[in-house]
Amino acid sequence: MAFPATRLRRTRQSDWVRRLTRETRPTVDDLVWSMIIHDGTEARIPITAMPGIDRLNIDEATKAAKRAQELGIPAIAIFPNIDPSKKDDEGSEALNPNGLIPEVIRAMKAAAPDVGIICDVALDPFTSHGHDGLIDGNGYVLNDETSKLLVAQAIVQAQAGADIVAPSDMMDGRVGAIRTGLEAAGHTNTLILSYAAKYVSAFYGPYREAVGSAALLKSDKKTYQMDFGNTQEAIREVAMDIEEGADMVMVKPGLPYLDIVQRVSRELHVPTLAFHVSGEYAAIQASAQRGWIEEERAIVEIIGAFKRAGASGVVTYNADKLAQLLS
Ligand code: PBG
Fold this sequence. Notes:
Layout (H helix, E strand, L loop, with lengths): L14 H7 L9 E8 L5 E3 L7 E3 L1 H14 L3 E7 L18 H12 L4 E6 L21 H18 L3 E4 L6 H11 L6 E8 L6 H7 L20 H12 L4 E5 L5 H11 L3 E4 L2 H12 L5 H15 L3 E4 L2 H8 L1
Helix pairs in contact: 2-3, 3-4, 4-5, 7-8, 8-10
This protein binds ligand PBG.
């Protein structure tokens, strides 16, 4: 029998050679810690569909920011759960300079100045109908009217000290409008991370419970989020947002869309983040709790997959756990 000319197993035979030949490796620098903040007095409120993750009040969120700084996590992405009495059809609370998000930003920046704060720009946690923008009589989300509010929301966040504003609403033209608004308001160094390729997805379910929009949302978001059959459209979305002034872009959800992460990072040469969303978190957690998969190995492997696909960073609810596992 002839011997194989090449034995790829030679470079797998021991740890030292596997380490030496490994192409990509995730580090703490790849992590963005996704966090849900609430405006109540209780320190932590569990999220049923996300075992292990709580909604944090401002104090707890501030402690978490300090912890992120100690762990070397570069940035935190914050999402609000506000009292339903503060929600209305226009999402007006999103523009309150003393609302939950501005308060949290100020507290986090004071406690952990070395951690970047990323704020979602979208109205869904603030509207009584759970949509990301203003709706007309037929429930259609209005593009240009919504964009105007998003500009105001982004300026409120920047004013409070947000380092990155991250429009996640999928309105057309909002990145350019936000850039112009920020420049005019003097926030020339505030970055824009655009959720450029964001798909309609079953994997957002637990998040909607977390921010309290699940029960309010009557229809779906198919008239603004992308159809999961499309790739070319994702490239156009990203290209447009770069043209309009996005500094970084996001692909969302994460794992089922690694092909999009790879194409965007290879073809458009822009820092590309991937959002490992709530439903992906819940799925891993549910099987880990049953002892069907090993959680720690699984979450490290997943971050490795995002890096392999070309992501410059990953937004994840597991960032604190991962920071320890990766160091
Ligand atoms: C919408 C928004 C969504 C998420 C964050 N902001 C999706 C949606 O409700 O359509 C999802 C995050 C997650 O699932 O972890 N502005």
